[in-house]
Design a protein that fits this description.
The chain is of the alpha+beta class. 32% of the residues lie in helices and 24% in strands. The chain contains 13 helices and 21 strands. The chain is elongated.
């Protein structure tokens, strides 16, 4: 067989690009992987705070529930290559994994460098030709079919029989994400939806409050986000206060749903600090504490109820005299405290930008892509994989699973 005729070009050495290259090479193809950086997997390296949340060990229904945009498009690729296939793949190439809270799958070592290490080893084992610092400037099309790419710098042309574009989105631009794939897609006649940073922290109006709470992490709280009094998101989870607002897993996931409402200027975040208790139960709990500390001042009587950093803020917002003895606090005052703890309120002003976004929301219109093979319906022998597509999910390993599944579908199809 003429090797040149069987050459597959993969553009982008991130999660999707590496998986697509390995899959295509295992099928006996000659694969060239082009990466514009000096090393592969820069974004993968920082994923999950450097621990790399590979996938999620949930069932299929849960997997689809966590895909926010175009879950139906993912039917073919998820059923062909699911989260357990991903776990098996990594075990097979030498990575031990573990499952943590929320079914999140991590390398046993907690090191994303180990994930990159086994992928690199497998790429080499499959004789993938990895070319670093190779920035593609143009996809070459003739008679509506792919035939090659042009590289930056020396205008070198590499010809091939098929191309897989796995260039990522716009998130974390420091890793090289600059929207190349969207530009390539548009040049071939594809539509690209409006793009937004997603899975991002949020700015709030109450800066004086969050600065006091900066660094405080709250576990097992419930949040609700409303716009024009309509609830657009609610969930339990972990939240972190920052100098500009709020972050943490539950906030990042919420950001996916807030994007369409950001122009409304009335996004309200309500934090239920005691979601396991009803208002009546919480009132009874506070009464018990107040009975126990009956001679204490209010400012010294909340230690068993709240984290230390939160106490001063809650006291100030409850409008109860901090010096007041707790046995003198009225039912009305207690009711005010209960309402505050069950609805700690902030006004969301904006979402943070691509520098802090885990993913890009939006991408190449999926109706223009074959969902089983990831091939363009507009141009032959052009395939797409990963974040460049208009598919995104919540935090917890789901976005990486989209990358693995779409890349496997493309690599398998070529």
């Amino acid at each position: 067989m003429n090797q040149e005729l069987n050459k597959i070009i993969v553009i982008g050495g991130g999660a999707a690009g590496m998986m697509a290259a390995i899959t295509a090479a295992r099928k006996g193809n000659q694969v060239v992987l082009l990466e514009k950086n000096e090393k592969l997997g820069k974004k993968l390296y920082i994923t999950g705070k450097g621990r790399c949340n590979l996938t999620n060990a949930c069932d299929m229904d849960e997997l689809f529930r966590n895909v926010v945009t175009n879950p139906k498009f993912m039917y073919g690729s998820f059923y062909s290559y699911n989260n357990f296939d991903t776990m098996d793949f990594f075990e097979e190439i030498g990575l031990k994994t573990k499952i943590e809270r929320g079914n999140r799958v991590f390398p046993e070592s907690d090191k994303s460098s180990d994930v990159l290490g086994v992928l690199l080893k497998e790429l080499k084992r499959q004789n993938v030709d990895i070319r670093y610092e190779s920035e593609v400037t143009e996809i070459l099309i003739k008679d509506n079919s792919f035939y090659g790419i042009k590289l930056n710098g020396n205008n070198e042309i590499i010809t091939g029989v098929k191309v897989i574009i796995a260039t990522g989105g716009l998130s974390y631009p420091s890793t090289g994400s600059n929207g190349d794939g969207f530009r390539f897609a548009k040049s071939m006649g594809h539509s690209v939806t409006k793009l937004f940073p997603s899975l991002v922290p949020m700015n709030v109006e109450e800066l004086n409050l969050v600065k006091e709470l900066q660094g405080l992490s709250l576990k097992n709280i419930h949040i609700g986000i409303t716009s024009k009094n309509k609830e657009i998101y609610s969930d339990f989870g972990e939240l972190l206060f920052t100098h500009f607002g709020v972050s943490g897993p539950v906030i990042l996931s919420a950001s996916s749903y807030c994007i369409p409402y950001m122009d409304n200027k009335d996004l309200i975040l309500l934090i239920d600090l005691k979601p396991a208790l009803s208002k009546e139960q919480l009132d009874a709990r506070i009464l018990r504490d107040f009975d126990e500390f009956s001679n204490k001042q209010y400012k010294n009587a909340l230690d068993q109820l709240l984290p230390r950093k939160l106490i001063q803020v809650i006291i100030a917002l409850s409008n109860i005299d901090p010096e007041k003895k707790v046995n003198l606090i009225t039912r009305e005052e207690r009711s005010r405290l209960v309402d505050l703890l069950k609805g700690f309120k902030f006004h969301i002003t904006r979402l943070r930008d691509y520098n802090e976004a885990v993913i890009t929301k939006g991408g190449i219109q999926v109706k223009e892509i074959n969902p089983s093979t990831m091939e363009s319906k507009l141009v032959s022998n052009v395939f797409f994989a990963g974040e460049v597509l208009d598919v995104d999910a919540l935090t917890g390993g789901f976005n990486l699973q989209i990358a693995w599944s779409t890349a496997y579908a493309a690599g398998n199809a070529v």
